[in-house]
Write a structure and sequence with these properties.
The structure holds 2 protein chains of 2 kinds. By secondary structure, chain A is mainly alpha-helical. Chain A has a domain of 84 residues. Chain A is built from 6 helices and no strands. The mean pLDDT of chain A is 84. In chain B, 6% of the residues are buried. Helix content of chain B is 84%, strand content 0%. The mean pLDDT of chain B is 80. Chain B has one domain. Chain B is mainly α. Chain B is rod-shaped, with a radius of gyration of 44 Å. Classes of the chains: A mainly alpha, B mainly alpha.
Chain lengths: 138, 115
Amino acid sequence: MIRIRFSVLAICITLLLQASLAVAAPYKSWTQLTPVQQEALQPLSTQWDSLSTKLQKNLLHAAKRYPKLTPEQKQRFQNRLEKWSKLTPEQRMRAREKFSAFSKVPPERREQVKQMVRQQEEASKTAASGVPPVAPVR
Amino acid sequence: MNQKFHSGQIKQLLNRSLARLDQPTLARLRDARAQALARYDAHSAAPAFAWASLWTDHRHAADSHHKSHYLAAAVLLAAILFSGTAYWHHTVDHDVSDVDIAILTDDLPIEMYVD
């Protein structure tokens, strides 16, 4: 009987400890990050310590996948990190919702939207440089 | 010798022999009877007290036993609920991070998703 009670107590303590560890957000200063994490989050090196613990936690999760990204994706990731970190939590949440909704759009439709965005970007770049757009060769 | 006596006849015989006994013997017999009766009373009463005591002890033990069971069950339930919540938070955080990295590496600029 005593053995059963000790087992139940041990299970409870283990569960509570694991849960506490999972809930407790691991605050880490920039110098405590691993080289891989520092490489992934390099654009945030100067402001890392001032970021919220929740954002740090999310970014550390994201940094785990950084080594598996293609060079192009790595470039995008690093270019967007600073802007992403400056958004408010509500803006980030809204962006996630929009992204999730857009992911459910059929691929053909998604591709059309992406094409339109690329064309707009090209147009705005051209307008900014002041060079008139080159007419397509027929 | 093989003559059979009825219980009534035996009683009469014993009573007659008793009348012939001397006083000291009768007194010793009376004392022995009184002692035997006293022992009989004590013996027959003891189990009742013993059972009563056992019952109250058992009830007390059962109460504390039940209390400790309820306490253990409550602690286990609390631990399971806490762990479940923590695990759920952990899973949600993981999902959020997956979406974050997808946004940060997507073809479309993040301005598309930011209000």
